[in-house]
Design a protein that fits this description.
By secondary structure, the protein is an all-beta fold. The chain has strands spanning about 20, 30, 45, 50, 60, 65, 75-80, 85-90, 105, 110-115, 125-130, 135-140, 145-150, 160, 170-180, 185-190, 195-200, 205-210, 215-220, 225-230, 240-245, 250-255, 265-270, 275-280, 285-290, 295-300, 310-315, 320-325, 335-340, 345-350, 355-360, 365-370, 375-380. The strands form 7 sheets. It has a 6-stranded antiparallel beta sheet, with no helix packed on it. The protein has a 5-stranded mixed beta sheet with strand order 3-22-21-20-19, with no helix packed on it. It starts with 17 loop residues before the first strand and ends in a 5-residue tail after the last strand.
């Protein structure tokens, strides 16, 4: 599998030429060579924001469903797309002895799982994946060893590991690829840091203190990385925000305040509008940040009982897709938001437990991994089904 990046996310995290995905996290970027640094004094609050919603969005069902191996052992947790028309699916399923079930490679030409990788290996499952177009490699966060694996795009059986510093990595929850600087940023939530990996050496080149790091998005327009953080105050108080990291300097250059009490996670970058979309699973809302002002400019209210687990940007239509798991044994759904007016325009029913998204720019399709039924749903961005 060779080509440019049209990522992911965990999480997650899309661009006209890249799609990033992490387990339940998603982020996206474009291969722009421009870099704009935000001044550290640009701390903002969510004032002057507007609330957007759609009272009667179109409701449809996904156009196709891909089953991955044996359902009793599978648990797809992350998706990554490359320009060769293939989708890498990570598997966080239960182990059998010391071995974990395989991850998969899907062909978008046939919408079938054409290859299983890592079968019988004890060092993976992974809960997130991001594609590095510059090196033609996938980076995966490993759930059992709390490490980062590197997989060759052309030969998925070729696996190496990133050397992790003594400070370690614990509960990594999201990754994003910086196409300008050739770096992978990893939200190390349990370790209270963001790790920066050079794709030329596959080694950690910087560790940025970041308490409660959760969710990442790379903004190719200004070269910054946006990451959800929590700041502890006196007593039991804490403040949620989005920290802005300079991709070239690996330092925090700004902060965007978010409403208190939220549970912020997956993010996505809208390259056409210059906006960052941030999910809040506690309120079922999406907060929209302008990357020119670093202020919250809109709030999108999702349908009742929504618990957004992943988000991705569709560069073909300028729309944002948000995965909502819903009830434990019922099909989940994907809300589709217009990037231009921040309104929900469609809702698509998918499998059970959707937890990751990846945009396939070659086919104009959004892929959704469904963790509870071991399937991947396929949504056409032209028909919204």
């Amino acid at each position: 599998m060779k080509g440019k990046l049209y990522l992911l996310a965990i999480c997650v995290f899309i661009l006209p030429s890249l799609v990033l995905v992490s387990c339940g996290k998603s982020a996206t970027t474009t291969s722009s060579n421009s870099t704009q640094t935000t001044n550290s004094s640009q701390t903002s609050t969510s004032t002057n924001s507007t609330t957007s919603n759609s009272s009667n969005p179109t409701a449809t069902a996904a156009t196709a469903t891909i089953t991955l191996g044996v359902s009793s052992t599978g648990n797809p947790t992350g998706l990554g797309y490359d320009s060769n028309g293939e989708i890498f699916v990570t598997n966080g399923g239960a182990a059998s002895g010391n071995n974990f079930p395989p991850s998969w490679v899907i062909s978008d030409a046939t919408n079938t799982a054409v290859q299983a990788v890592f079968s019988g290996r004890s060092s993976i499952p992974a809960n997130g994946v991001v594609y590095d177009a510059g090196k033609n490699e996938f980076f995966l966060t490993e759930t059992n060893s709390y490490g980062v694996a590197v997989v060759s795009d052309s030969n998925p059986a070729q696996v190496s590991s990133v050397a992790i510093p003594q400070t370690g990595i614990y509960q990594p929850n999201s990754m994003v690829y910086d196409s300008v600087d050739g770096k992978i940023f990893v939200a190390n939530g349990g370790g209270g840091t963001v790790l920066v990996i050079s794709d030329s050496t596959n080694s950690v080149v910087a560790t940025i203190p970041m308490f409660g790091a959760s969710g990442l998005a790379y903004d190719s327009g200004n070269g910054n990385v946006y990451v959800g953080t929590t700041t502890l105050g006196s007593g039991n108080s804490y403040t949620e925000s989005v920290s802005v990291i300079s991709g070239s300097k690996n330092t925090v250059v700004g902060t965007v305040a978010l409403p208190p009490g939220g549970s912020y996670g997956p993010m996505a970058y809208d390259s056409a509008q210059g906006k960052i979309f941030v999910t809040d699973s506690s309120s079922g809302a999406i907060y929209v940040i302008s990357d020119s002002t670093n202020k919250v400019v809109a709030t999108v209210t999702l349908p009742k009982l929504s618990d957004p687990s992943a988000i991705a940007y569709d560069s073909g239509t300028g729309e944002i897709f948000v995965a909502n798991p819903g009830e434990s044994n019922a099909p989940g759904n994907v809300s589709i938001i217009s990037g231009s007016d921040n309104a929900i325009i469609a809702t698509v029913t998918v499998g059970t437990g959707p937890n990751a998204l990846a945009y396939d720019s070659g086919k104009g399709e959004m892929l959704v991994s469904n963790g509870r039924d071991n399937t991947v749903s396929v949504i056409s961005d032209s028909s919204h089904k």
